[in-house]
Amino acid sequence: MALQLAVSSVILALRPSPDDDGDDGGGVLGLWIPLVRRIREPYEGRWALPGGPLGEGCGLEQAARNALTTSTGLDPAYLEQLYAFGGLDRSRDRENEGPDPDRVVSIVYWALVRAEEDQAAVRAHNVEWFPVDALPDLAFDHIQVIDYALARLRAKILYSPIAHAFLPTEFTLAELRAVHEAVLGRELDPANFRRQTLASGGVEPTGRRLEGTNHRPPSLYRYRAESVATSPTPPPRSAS
Amino acid sequence: MALQLAVSSVILALRPSPDDDGDDGGGVLGLWIPLVRRIREPYEGRWALPGGPLGEGCGLEQAARNALTTSTGLDPAYLEQLYAFGGLDRSRDRENEGPDPDRVVSIVYWALVRAEEDQAAVRAHNVEWFPVDALPDLAFDHIQVIDYALARLRAKILYSPIAHAFLPTEFTLAELRAVHEAVLGRELDPANFRRQTLASGGVEPTGRRLEGTNHRPPSLYRYRAESVATSPTPPPRSAS
DNA sequence: CGGGCTTATGGTCGAGGCAACCTGAAGGGG
DNA sequence: CCCCTTCAGGTTGCCTCGACCATAAGCCCG
């Protein structure tokens, strides 16, 4: 049988990055991706997106979640289908290295994991985290897949409340704004961000205040996301 | 081998519909979909989306185009991947009819065909056109797939110049506006539509005028779409 | 304990997009 | 020849968004 179907995931987490742009040098947030080292022949030894074959008796999304958890130990807070690659599409920019990657169809998901959980993957074998602006050489066309996932994230964070998937269930508006700034790569006005975030309805105030903040100053309220839809794209639901 | 991979398409065309809403009764444009009658056991005799198994030696998009042309005889002006369904996802709302549709993964594309071409499919066997608001009972969960494709079309026509995929290479602004009105289901202001269409840059005036119009009146310019990207979603291109 | 610093919070203002509406012009049909 | 339909362009008002400013509320440090 010449047809293989794999399910892989672009997993995105937000952690303080040591990338010294020369700005302030403080703990600037950046996007990180866990990759696994291939142990089989096509591109053996290269880094690749975590994934696995389509499991038995479960749907595509569950298969993606299983493969993701098995290979990295993570439990994503958000998971959505990205694109289905396959056939000879991926051989566009390959010359003739490796045997025959034809007849390999891979359905790729993209996932967001919370900050406190992104350390769980350290335990897994052959898994290493890389910042998205300093990726190693990747197997297949995975670099393009990652670029596409990043474009999707940057586009979707503008109109959909998915930023809190990077954060715990309760967070301050400053933390949420830091997520947006890290993803979009530019600073946002605190006042405007507060207004449009509260007006969008994706977030609600808990009423509780945050007192023990490390060195930050004034009236910090805490906000909580109301409903985190894990997979808003599939057909059962029509886009608003 | 328990894994089957199929490629099917939601094909959309615009043709005058005989649906008498009681408005003006004239040739109102409506969306139509070609369906094929199943001749094999799961849901035999029911109408289903045209498709076929993943062919040899070609990519997913080319496979979708081949299956589409083979079963309906159409050549779509626009083709884009919609979603990958499979595993047990589709058994959510099935009780226990049919044998075992598990392990069937189908990658669904959506396509737009031009008005002058949508008659070509009449020749094909077992193919019939249905208006989207009067669909018969469909096999599998294809009704949800169609709903999802319609939602994508209505959402994407608002920000992307894909409406001219329903029209010949040159068309009047009135024709383009009629397409938008038919897809969105509401009337649009001619002046505002003209302004934002010309400002969007997706269309350019040819300078030629249309004289022999049937009964319509005055200065009709013709416009031509500049570049029709068939598949704007895949990773090589990042969303603007 | 108090000054200075950082940051949230609310307000204002101007630019731009958009929907609705109006007026004039160009043809074609009765 | 008059009327009717439709395009073409203009105007107005509303809403949104980004930029900017002022104030207040803590925290840090002297």
Descriptive account of the structure:
The first copy, chain A, is of the alpha+beta class and 240 residues long. Chain A has 2 domains: 4-156, Nucleoside Triphosphate Pyrophosphohydrolase, CATH 3.90.79; 163-225, Winged helix-like DNA-binding domain superfamily/Winged helix DNA-binding domain (Arc Repressor Mutant, subunit A). Helices cover 21% and strands 28% of the residues of chain A. The first copy, chain A, is built from 4 helices and 10 strands. The first copy, chain A, has helices spanning 60-72, 142-156, 173-184, 190-200; strands at residues 4-17, 28-37, 47-48, 51-53, 78-85, 104-112, 127-131, 170-172, 203-209, 221-225. In chain A, strands 1, 2, 3, 4, 5, 6 and 7 form a 7-stranded mixed beta sheet that branches. In chain A, strands 8-10-9 form a 3-stranded antiparallel beta sheet. Chain A is elongated. The relative contact order of chain A is 0.17. The interface between A and B is large, with 36 and 36 residues. The structure holds a DNA duplex (30 and 30 nucleotides). Chains A, B: Residues 35-146 form the Nudix hydrolase domain. Chains A, B: Residues 195-240 are annotated as: Disordered. Chains A, B: This is Nudix-related transcriptional regulator NrtR. Chains A, B: Residues 166-222 form the NrtR DNA-binding winged helix domain. Chains A, B: Pfam families: NUDIX (PF00293), WHD_NrtR (PF21906).
Provide the descriptors you would attach to this structure in a database record.
three-stranded antiparallel sheet, 240 residues, Arc Repressor Mutant, subunit A, disordered C terminus, 4 helices, DNA-binding, homodimer, alpha+beta, 2 domains, seven-stranded mixed sheet, Nucleoside Triphosphate Pyrophosphohydrolase, elongated
